[in-house]
Amino acid sequence: MDTIINEINERLTEVMSSLKDGNVKEAMTYSLMAGGKRLRPLLFCYTLKSYGVDYHDYIDVACAIEMIHTYSLIHDDLPGMDNDDLRRGRPTCHIQFDEATAILAGDGLLNESMNVILNMDIDSSLKVDMMKVLYDHSGVNGMIYGQQQDIYFEDHQANLKELEDVHHYKTGCLLSAPLILAGLIANKNEVPALKDLGFTIGLAFQIQDDILDVTSDTETLGKPVGSDIDNHKSTYVTLLGIEQSQDYANKLFKSCLEKIYALTLNHGLMIEIIEKVMKRVK
Amino acid sequence: MDTIINEINERLTEVMSSLKDGNVKEAMTYSLMAGGKRLRPLLFCYTLKSYGVDYHDYIDVACAIEMIHTYSLIHDDLPGMDNDDLRRGRPTCHIQFDEATAILAGDGLLNESMNVILNMDIDSSLKVDMMKVLYDHSGVNGMIYGQQQDIYFEDHQANLKELEDVHHYKTGCLLSAPLILAGLIANKNEVPALKDLGFTIGLAFQIQDDILDVTSDTETLGKPVGSDIDNHKSTYVTLLGIEQSQDYANKLFKSCLEKIYALTLNHGLMIEIIEKVMKRVK
């Protein structure tokens, strides 16, 4: 797993090196190379590997996914959004640089995520098919809708159904995209099943996130714990309590295993990466 | 010209209607439909028309260009950037809505600009070629670099060469892209000449902008006049004075005419649109 992370980091460094020097490039690099877990690129590479496809040929897609994820974190942390000072154990982008640079760094990462895919040496039709999935999942009918609803429910009480809907979009979209993209490359027939698996992983991931926000500590997590409570956010923990939330996460994990066994790929490899997502401590 | 503007506005409305309802969609629509001059889409449609190509088949490209332009305005106006309250004669996006919604609306417009092109019913290879131009021009090696340098020169004195460089990227990139994109569709051989023409138009446009900032009034312009002086920005007017700036703009306009006559297209139509850009009063 570490090998893939290193390969992704190396390629991200190469991608960034093609950009014009300045504050924005520095800020993009600062946030991108802050030692994130790379879960989304790993999900993509592992799914390809599980289908017996050499992920090296598509590592730029993994980079694009991580760039989109990082842009969303930079903008989420801005004073006008969540106003967070700490991310991945370091000052957030607008604290380390300034607000204008952080806004542009986010814009830059979204914009350059496209250029990475556009410049790949693969069929144009595959590029277009993959970008359709990626930018549908990250856009106003996907992740951005989730971010909007997340803000809405800071001032409004969410029930469990509404909370699940927020997370479906805010977290699920960009966690299911890697699986769908790998499916487009490796096995088009199984795309619907991969999508379903991806959203289940997304939900389990989010419940884990809510649990960690109250059971972990700032040092381990690299971001302030208890921020959900401070922001008056409804979470699985506030709605269900820790124990029931953990039960729900375990149930979803089991459901993921069943969905994996129904796919025609290397089950062991897929379980390895799903366990990484589920059993994380940060 | 008004017919094309109406057609673009109609198509933009259609494009927006496919998005999930909410604050972000409202804010995107508010800024997008605020009655902008649509110069960039007009440049694209007129260039196609001048080559004898039916622009209706490519109107989604015109929409994508305007969406990118609007996203850049929304983010430029944010408190963390230029902190402007007025745009196109109306409250800016973050004043009308709130900062979080304006950040997401900008992100949404950039993201959805891609989806508009990705969903077009044309060859994948043409889509990819056009998107390469568009997102290279709008990205960290293009418009975003210009925005970064623009901020840098708020605190640093720029000379004429540096100022021209800022505007080459900040304004020129997204004014030359429509011509290059039309060239990719209509006449690949003339793309380099179209690019050169586009950047000359961009420079003339910017000088005109600097002149209007001191000679016009807020009501006509729809945004505060004198903001360049308030922000201590170097402009053509502060460096050359109004008269010399006007001479320079006139010289560039003549140069544009020469460049147009060297192209194998309908010269009258191209001059019509260039005059619209040059002789604007707002």
Automatic annotation (TrEMBL), chains A, B:
It comes from the Bacteria. Coiled coil: none annotated. GO terms for cellular component: cytoplasm. The keyword Transferase applies. Pfam families: polyprenyl_synt. GO terms for biological process: terpenoid biosynthetic process. Its EC number is 2.5.1.10. Belongs to the FPP/GGPP synthase family. This is Farnesyl diphosphate synthase. It comes from Kandleria vitulina DSM 20405.
